[in-house]
Write a structure and sequence with these properties.
heterodimer, A: alpha+beta, 7-stranded mixed sheet, 4-stranded antiparallel sheet, 10 helices, 29% helix, 23% strand, B: alpha/beta, Elongation Factor Tu (Ef-tu), domain 3, Rossmann fold, 2 domains, 6-stranded antiparallel sheet, 8 helices, 15 strands, 22% helix, globular
Chain lengths: 340, 279
């Protein structure tokens, strides 16, 4: 693997240079939030930040996405345009937990005989530059419990590690190597690699929260019906914040919008937390209360996804823990399940 | 990369009003492009998303049999936004279809076996597809004795009346049509589907039963077939759930880790017993 060292102060210059020729998404300050945004001239790209408020899944799987356009002709309604053109892009500053979410989403969007063209068009044309967590940014981080690590190349095309004065820059994939020429010509030495290994150990050790995310699987397999499920959802207000901020939640709705003789079919993020999500035209709803919806959320992440793809559908970023308005803590639910 | 979200253009060729209440119609759709027709290879039990630009999509079982060439048929009850728009359509209108989607009745497994088909109300559509498939001269010898029990609340709510008439004159299908309550002109059987199944009492010997109908009918019909000695592997049904994408991504039609849209809709009772009871 190609490895380079770049001076710390050089990084923003490199990002700006990439942004002059390519669509580059990077963390920028937006009022009180840090968000991934397309870098415009004059923007200050953040290189030291905790994590973005929103998960980067939005860049491959937008909150609202045009699927096709159609128009009224004298023969009836006809297709006018399919999937929109997608441009080459770079995402800079993805934390390892979020970079890992791309791998988990890939499994879903490419399974059996169906590959989702909208997701993979963007995925294939985007280079992910990940930024290792030298220190876990939040006390609520729990990536190491769900198969991740604060220092990891999983899901990254290029991986940066802050070594103090330099960034160790690793070109993990071919797609990453294509940008090699922008990152100077100083090859990384053995010492910097050793420093990174040290950081990986200390950073992982700094994560104090360990939850039995894998261990609860046998209990979940056996206890779809259990009094425990009656105890978890009462304070949930079904706002859906957890699912919208989650890097791995992928449920969507498809709707049509018409204006005059033209219309479009779009897909929007949806949420298993909503009662309409599964409500059928007949009035029947297989998940009729918030209890069934919460059970679905937990089961989907810690049981069904494991059955389908062999991985837990959670990267331990802690967003749902931080932003839940009623402090429903998925870590605590997992711990409570383990005590059953 | 083929885009599974873009509907195949079809033209409404024929609309048949099936019932006296006029809220169940069969739509015969012809493909606009010849190559789409050739690529649309389906089996009885599969479904498709009926797509009306400006309104949305609705997942509906395919009611025609692949042995019927040149068109596909869907029998639809008027219920929500899309099905209402469909019911207001005229012959000749353009619309779309995405599919075929889902698995099918297990035709390979059914070969060489005696077949029992039990349907209730208008949940008879993919069973009708199956029966027409099996009755086709190329296929009939691949299956054993064919018994069908079909019921509706009243005579005016029976669908596919002409076909039922035609099947009743054949000697290679034993057909029992029943209504909960007949009217002055009704000369056929009266009684609920489970009761008629008990009377007909098809042998479980080398036999498979496929049941579709309202949940209450299924609940009372299952014990009849247990008593007759049918194993859970040989009792098969088709599930319905709210769907959007139809290809296992949008996340709403799962029963446990199985998605009704891509792993189903057809499941045996043995399979359902391994899944969560959430449908």
């Amino acid at each position: 693997m190609e490895k380079r060292l770049i001076k710390k102060h050089e990084l923003t210059g490199i990002i700006d240079k990439l942004a002059s020729g390519l669509l580059v998404y990077a963390p920028v300050q937006d009022e009180d939030n840090v968000l991934f945004k397309p870098v415009q001239k004059g923007d200050t790209v953040l290189t030291t930040f905790a994590n973005t408020k929103n998960a980067p899944k939005n860049l491959f799987f937008p909150r609202s996405e045009l699927l096709m356009k159609y128009t009224r002709t004298d023969k009836g309604m006809e297709l006018a345009a399919g999937a929109p053109e997608v441009s080459q892009a770079v995402i800079f500053g993805v934390r390892p937990c979020d970079a890992r979410s791309f791998i988990l989403l890939d499994m879903l969007f490419d399974q059996d005989k169906w590959k989702d063209p909208y997701y993979f068009d963007k995925r294939a044309k985007t280079t992910v530059i990940a930024l290792n967590c030298v220190h876990p940014p939040y006390s609520s981080c729990f990536c190491t419990s769900v198969g991740g690590s604060p220092v990891s190349s999983e899901g990254a095309d290029i991986l940066l590690t802050d070594l103090g004065e330099n960034y160790l820059t690793e070109f993990v994939t071919e797609k990453g190597r294509a940008l090699l020429k922008h990152f100077g010509d100083v090859n990384a030495d053995k010492t910097s690699e050793k420093t990174k290994d040290e950081i990986a150990k200390t950073s992982a050790a700094e994560i104090k929260v360990q939850i039995p995310a894998r261990e609860i699987k046998p209990w979940l397999d056996a206890n779809f019906e259990h009094p425990f499920w009656d105890t978890i959802h009462q304070k949930c207000i079904a706002c859906g914040t957890c699912t919208y901020l989650c890097p791995t939640c992928h449920c969507f709705d498809i709707t049509d919008e018409m204006k005059g003789g033209n219309g479009m079919r779009i897909r929007n993020w949806d949420s298993c937390m909503y009662w309409l999500f599964t409500k059928e035209t007949s009035g029947h709803n297989p998940r009729s209360s918030q209890k069934e919806r919460w059970r679905q959320r937990l089961m989907h992440k810690f049981r069904y996804y494991v059955d389908m793809f062999g991985a837990i559908s959670c990267v331990g970023c802690g967003r749902c823990v931080i932003y839940c308005p009623v402090n429903l803590d998925i870590r605590k639910l997992v711990e409570d399940i383990a005590k059953q | 990369m083929q885009n599974p979200y873009i509907p195949i253009p079809v033209r409404v060729e024929k609309i048949i009003t099936e019932v006296d209440t006029k809220d169940i119609k069969t739509f015969r759709l012809a493909f606009v492009n010849k190559h789409d027709e050739e690529n649309f290879k389906y089996l009885p039990g599969q479904f498709a998303e009926l797509s009306i630009y400006g309104k949305g999509e609705s997942p509906i079982g395919i009611a025609s049999s692949p042995t019927q060439k040149g068109y596909i048929e869907f029998t639809v009850q008027k219920a929500g936004v899309v099905t209402t728009a469909l019911h207001e359509m005229e012959e000749g209108t353009l619309m779309g279809v995405r599919g075929p989607l889902g698995n099918s009745w297990p035709l390979e497994y059914l070969e060489g076996k005696n077949i029992v088909v039990v349907g209730g109300g208008f949940a008879f559509t993919t069973l009708r597809s199956l029966i027409n498939y099996m009755l086709h001269e190329d296929n009939r010898t691949h299956f054993g004795k064919l018994t069908c029990v079909y019921g509706a609340r009243m005579p005016g709510l029976l669908i596919y009346k002409d076909e039922l008439e035609a099947w009743s004159t054949r000697d290679d299908i034993e057909l029992h049509v029943t209504v909960d309550k007949g009217d002055a002109n009704w000369k056929g059987k009266e009684g609920f589907v489970p009761t008629i199944c008990k009377e007909v009492a098809p042998s479980a010997e080398n036999a498979v039963v496929m049941i579709c109908g309202p949940p209450i009918m299924i609940r009372f019909t299952l014990p009849v077939f247990f008593d007759l000695g049918f194993s859970k592997e040989n009792i098969i049904t088709s599930l319905e759930m709210r769907m959007k994408c139809g290809i296992g991504k949008c996340g709403r039609c799962n029963v446990g880790h199985k998605y009704v849209c891509k792993d189903g809709p057809v499941f045996s009772l043995a399979e359902l017993n391994h899944l969560t009871k959430e449908y």
